[in-house]
């Protein structure tokens, strides 16, 4: 699954947002076996930054399986597992392709009336417009340095990823 795109969306007073059709089309291949009109299943959780992360259920299941193999007698593993699961909720789209976000998760991400969905590979980040603008305004030279560090190889990079 490779999801891409940025999508501004509105939130209603109850915390519901409609997932954009262009994004749902990208998810449709993985949901095809559920038939026409079936709902999409996700798990929503706090992101590592001040955003929420929306995981398609198969992606979440893969992550949960990896976490299940961690040694829970190790205090750092236990702390990570606890922090990762903190705030996670299963959600499904309704008949209007909307999802309902819990209030405490909306508060965590600073979501009020609008959000920006950022599709990233196999998951979707949900940002407040203000936080999204802040991360999107990253200095181009900072991004170039980061790209060199992560993708450039050599002493500091991985070296085996070709673009």
Describe this structure in words.
- The chain folds into two domains: 3-127, Transcriptional regulator MraZ domain (Chemotaxis protein chec, 3-Layer(aba) Sandwich); 137-163, no CATH class.
- It has six helices and eight strands, in the order E-E-H-E-E-H-H-E-E-H-E-E-H-H.
- It has helices spanning 21-31, 57-68, 75-85, 103-109, 129-136, 140-151, and strands at 3-10, 16-18, 41-46, 52-56, 89-92, 98-100, 114-121, 123-127.
- It has a six-stranded antiparallel sheet.
- A hairpin with a 1-residue loop joins strand 7 and strand 8 (123-127).
Beta-strand content: 25-35%
The CATH architecture name of the largest domain reads 3-Layer(aba) Sandwich
H/I helix tally: 6
The Cα radius of gyration reads 17 Å
Q: Structural class of the secondary structure composition?
A: alpha+beta
Tell me the series of helices and strands, N- to C-terminal.
Answer: EEHEEHHEEHEEHH
The count of domains is 2
Low-confidence runs: none
Distance between the termini: 18 Å
- Net shape: globular
Tell me the CATH superfamily of the largest domain.
Transcriptional regulator MraZ domain
Topology:
Blueprint: E1 3-10, E2 16-18, H1 21-31, E3 41-46, E4 52-56, H2 57-68, H3 75-85, E5 89-92, E6 98-100, H4 103-109, E7 114-121, E8 123-127, H5 129-136, H6 140-151
Antiparallel strand pairs: 1-7, 2-6, 3-4, 3-5, 4-8, 7-8
What's the gist of this structure?
The protein has 163 residues and is α+β, with helices and mostly antiparallel strands.
Descriptive tags:
single chain; alpha+beta; 6-stranded antiparallel β-sheet
